[in-house]
Each structure stands twice: as structure tokens, then as C-alpha cells.
Write a structure and sequence with these properties.
single chain; about 210 residues; Aminopeptidase; 2 domains; seven-stranded mixed β-sheet
Amino acid sequence: MTIGIEKFKTQYVDVNEENPNASTFYHKMGFVIYNRNAKDSQGNNFPILEMKRTDFYIRNAESKDIEVLQKIFKDTILSININDYSINEAKDWASCGNNIKRWKELITSHYFIVAETYKKQIIGFSSISRDGYINSMFVHKDFQRIGIAKTLLNEMELYARTRRIKKLTSEVSITAINFFQKNRYIIVKEQKRKANKMFLTNYLVEKYL
């Protein structure tokens, strides 16, 4: 199959969602999920993942990635999220990335993935707990608005569906709320949550799968 994909320069494939081996195989071939259909082309209740080849691929995060993940976290907050938060708020939030122990815990205890280019540059990451809480989602400041966040979110939702998790929750920033709403997440409430020393506005959201 690998030879066939390369020979015919396959760019799009449809995969049975209930066959994780298939999606894993195509991930390794450089395909990512860009859409999901609850029914197949015949209208049957047969969930299909639509996958396409991109300039990046998805892999599991490793402890050796932490330094890069910290930089993406801080740079994104201080260059993108700062448009919706004060300078002091952004700096306080960014300082949360200094806790290496917390990064290690997340990589160990969560389904934690990164988006990486074929030149081995990490350009985004996301993680989800075993009970469906999306803990983090950040995209490199220089790779915004090209579908990386959507791909990461698709992966989070696939993880949840394959484990029969019925509800996803997250706490998302002012910057990210429109993105989550476009992907059918509902605002439960606006709230103030402590970052490092300061309390910042964010939104508790949920989505039933």
C-alpha cells in the first residue's frame, strides 16, 4: 500500500474511524484528519475520517520536546494572545510554562501530540486527559491560520470517540473562543482563572460527541 500511495501521489483518503490501525498507518504516511462524517457515502451510520496529506504530520510528544514546547507556549502568548490580554496578564500566563515538572506530568498522563514539519520543526501541540478535558492547544506564532489547530482538535476528538468519551471540556482563552465555537463547542460560563499570580478571563466550554 505504501508503494501505491507514493506511486500515485495520493493526497486524500477516507478511513473507517473504528479502525485505529488504519488512521495510525496514514498518520505515518503524512496524512492528517481534516473532516469527519458520521455516515458513509451510502447514508449508513458508519463514521468516516477524511484525511489529507499536508506539510506536517502528527506524533506523540516526548520529554525531549519540552524545551521547544515551552518556547511555542511563551511565544504564542506573548505575540498572539497579547492582543486580547494586557501585557502583565500575558507575561504572567507565559510564566506558567516554566514548570518543567508539569510538562513531564502532562506528557506522561495525557494523550499529548505535536504537529511537526518534515524538517523536524514542531509547529503546534495539544493534549487531552483520559476523561476528556482538553488541557492545552497552542500553534506556533508563525504558523497561524493554516489549519493546524483544526487538525489538532480533530485528533483530540478522535481520541475521545475511540475511547467512548461522550463529552469534551476545556477552558479556552478570549483569543481561542471563536475557534472553539465554530467547532460546535458551547460556552458553559465565562470565568476568572488563576494563571501564575494573576486571574485571567477565559471560558469553560463543552461539546457532546
